[in-house]
Amino acid sequence: MPRCMRKGSWIIAKTNAARCLLGVALVAAVPTVAQDSPASSSAQLEQALAAMKPQRPGIVDAYVVVAALDTDDVFGREARETGRVLASRFDARGRTLVLANNEDSDKADAAGTPDHLERALAAAAALMDRKEDVVVLYTTSHGSPRAGLDYENPTSGTGIITPDQLAAMLGRQGFQNRLIILQACFSGQFVPALAQPGTVVATAASAIDPSFGCAPGNDWTFFGHALINQAMRKPDSFVRQFRRAFVTINGWEQKLGIEASNPQISIGSDTSRWLAALDARAPKVASASAGRPPSELAE
Length: 299
Hints:
Radius of gyration: 18 Å
Shape: globular
Oligomer: single chain
Largest sheet: 6 strands, mixed
């Protein structure tokens, strides 16, 4: 077990947290993208927040926040493209924030730190009608069993966001309608803490299983590729898109002879209205996948 210490409200791990697994091999982190200074990244975030569009009365608007909580290149690539897919899927252009590192000309709005995540969620809450609109949160990172989502950033440190901490972060903003998608090993552990009548929670794995595809050189994890890069680019309801991704991932895992990640979905009893509204405005024509499939699928 890693030794931990408290720093503010975050648990800061002093050793490396568990990594996404393929078989039993640990994937080494090899960041290659440039890191912005904290002041520069914070200024970029303020500019992005100021440019966010207000909600439209009478329309169920989605405010999308995508965060790569780890600096491994795969998470940044996945987050930046996920922002573009979700902005289209949920009619959220101008209401989408992407927190990730930049890579060449592919830019995000700011770095994916816990502080930036909370500020982005607060900005969305301030602009939206919390009774009418929906917050859509997608995070991608490593995960640790019986702990939470790992985060690692040269400027903000290394640590874990626990289920209770993420629940509290969201709770402080008073969101009533929430679509929360978590890409990480063992991310099913967040379902009990986040499930509410107005909330849909979708995770890449169960509470006790790893997920796959997070080699730093990849463009996508298994979950991101199946759900975001494939299923959500095709016209359908979100629930059916998730189920299609589940079947796809299960097929990949069976072919590779690896343990099932068992993606999870929890659908609250008061979500049908806003899910139907967002599904109705989804693109009617499929779009092409972007980037390369996870390298493990070519083996």
